[in-house]
């Protein structure tokens, strides 16, 4: 319990460091010199490494792709891999997303839960091990990624150019108790070339990232009678409860759809602004055109569904449940329309099961699948040594029985061998990753610090 007492004494510093990291807007931007993912992620990495340096750990920055801090001696090491980049903040915040304000015992801000708060918890957990005078038999390394939210491109490759994999470890980027299964992850575009003749739609744009349920989408409708669209919107809103508004302009009518953001792995927690808009446009008396046909096709095969049944990909298993289906981004101009999807299929299913269903639905259309990005599912059996150690720690620190979970979210466990997702969201707490008003309870931040300290110690002793 010495570790826990040390953590309690660090509470003020843990909160302060978390707030300071939240203040840095670390959304991916265009690369700059020596900053492959832009200014924000590089600044967040620099903050973490400087903090670790002050706390007495050896630190290494690998060209601002990724960095690490470590404690102890030995060839082998235990790895804790998380990230300091964040998804865009979106709309609908009660408190400013980068102010790290504390209200009712909660720190509000983008990244508090995903994944800045948990990474600060790990840093201070390692400090507690050091301050307790513990000499582990293996090194303990905390690794700070900077591009996880955009698919980890470049950062893990750069890491393995000079570093070997950990022999065991975890990523604090999901939920408790332990994630032993992660669904197969796909992100891809559905693309249709358009003949702009007779098109009554000038543009459609909505969504920010494939792995977010979009909270906003708008379209420019080329129609002479704005009142027709206004009255149709009123009727549609009364019928569906969706947030649709109309703004007449000189040369077109702009239709705006507001939804509710959520993580792309949990589309059922959001309201998809893109598909709300598609459903509305589908009810307008517009002339037939390539884009109208595309919209009607998507309304028939997606609509507001989130499990892919009508698209022919309604896969399900006992271990991880149903496939999740998220329409993340849409862009339409006079030449083509591109819709970006994020599908996550069950851990015991195969990629072919999903792609065959997609191809069957798209057969006899001129809609093409492009830019397919795929990660295989991940599964650790119950008797795996890492699972056993983390189960013991969780039960000792919380008093709760360990239940193994499978999730739709893709974590670093798919990128780095020998690690599993462990925390930071406790059972019964809301998953606010990628949503407005993301927060971390201060009590949970301290509890996480204790759990992660004991987990690192037990894996490395």
Automatic annotation (TrEMBL):
This is Xaa-His dipeptidase, putative. InterPro entries: ArgE/DapE_CS, Bact_exopeptidase_dim_dom, M20A_pepV-rel, Peptidase_M20, Peptidase_M20_dimer, Peptidase_M20A. The lineage of its organism: Bacteria, Bacillati, Bacillota, Clostridia, Eubacteriales. One of its GO terms (molecular function) is acetylornithine deacetylase activity. One of its GO terms (biological process) is L-arginine biosynthetic process. Keywords: Dipeptidase, Hydrolase, Metal-binding, Metalloprotease, Protease, Zinc. Its cofactor is Zn(2+). SUPFAM superfamilies: Bacterial exopeptidase dimerisation domain (SSF55031), Zn-dependent exopeptidases (SSF53187). Gene3D superfamilies: 3.30.70.360, Zn peptidases (3.40.630.10). NCBIfam families: dipeptidaselike (TIGR01887), PRK07318.1 (NF005591). Residues 254-332 form the Peptidase M20 dimerisation domain. Pfam families: M20_dimer, Peptidase_M20. Belongs to the peptidase M20A family. It comes from the Bacteria. It comes from Clostridium novyi (strain NT).
């Amino acid at each position: 319990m010495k570790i826990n007492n040390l953590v309690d004494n660090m509470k003020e510093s843990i909160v302060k460091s978390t707030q300071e990291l939240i203040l840095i807007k670390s959304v991916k931007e265009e690369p700059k010199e020596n900053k492959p993912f832009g200014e924000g992620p590089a600044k967040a990495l620099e903050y973490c490494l400087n903090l670790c340096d002050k706390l007495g750990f050896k630190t290494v920055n690998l060209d601002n792709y990724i960095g690490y801090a470590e404690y102890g001696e030995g060839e082998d090491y235990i790895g804790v891999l998380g990230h300091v980049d964040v998804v865009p903040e979106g709309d609908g915040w009660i408190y400013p997303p980068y102010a790290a304000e504390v209200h009712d015992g909660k720190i509000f801000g983008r990244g508090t839960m995903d994944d800045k708060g948990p990474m600060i918890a790990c840093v201070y957990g390692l400090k507690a091990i050091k301050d307790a005078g513990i000499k582990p038999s293996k090194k303990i390394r905390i690794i700070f990624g900077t591009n996880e939210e955009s698919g980890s491109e470049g950062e893990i490759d750069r890491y393995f150019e000079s570093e070997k994999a950990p022999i065991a470890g975890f990523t604090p980027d999901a939920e408790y108790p332990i994630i032993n299964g992660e669904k197969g992850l796909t992100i891809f575009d559905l693309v249709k070339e358009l003949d702009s003749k007779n098109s009554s739609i000038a543009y459609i744009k909505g969504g920010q990232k494939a792995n977010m349920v979009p909270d906003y989408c708008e379209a420019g409708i080329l129609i002479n009678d704005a009142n027709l669209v206004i009255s149709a919107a009123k009727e549609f809103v009364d019928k569906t409860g969706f947030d649709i508004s109309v703004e007449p302009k000189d040369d077109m009518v702009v239709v705006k759809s507001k939804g509710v953001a959520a993580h792309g792995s949990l589309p059922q927690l959001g309201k998809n602004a893109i598909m709300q808009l598609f459903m509305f446009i589908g009810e307008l008396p517009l002339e037939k055109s390539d884009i109208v046909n595309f919209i009607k096709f998507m309304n028939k095969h997606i609509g507001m569904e989130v499990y892919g049944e009508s698209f022919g990909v309604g896969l399900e298993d006992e271990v991880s449940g149903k496939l999740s289906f998220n329409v993340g981004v849409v862009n339409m101009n006079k030449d083509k329309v591109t819709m970006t999807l994020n599908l996550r299929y069950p851990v015991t299913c195969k990629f072919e099961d999903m792609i065959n269903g997609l191809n069957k639905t798209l057969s006899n259309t001129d809609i093409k699948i492009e830019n397919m990005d795929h990660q295989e599912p991940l599964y650790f059996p119950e008797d795996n040594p890492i699972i056993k150690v983390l189960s013991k720690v969780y039960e000792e620190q919380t008093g709760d029985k360990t239940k193994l979970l499978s999730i739709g979210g893709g974590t670093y466990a798919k990128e780095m061998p020998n690690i599993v997702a462990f925390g930071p969201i406790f059972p019964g707490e809301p998953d606010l990753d990628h949503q407005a008003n993301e927060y971390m309870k201060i009590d949970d931040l301290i509890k996480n610090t204790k759990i992660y300290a004991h987990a690192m110690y037990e894996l490395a002793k």
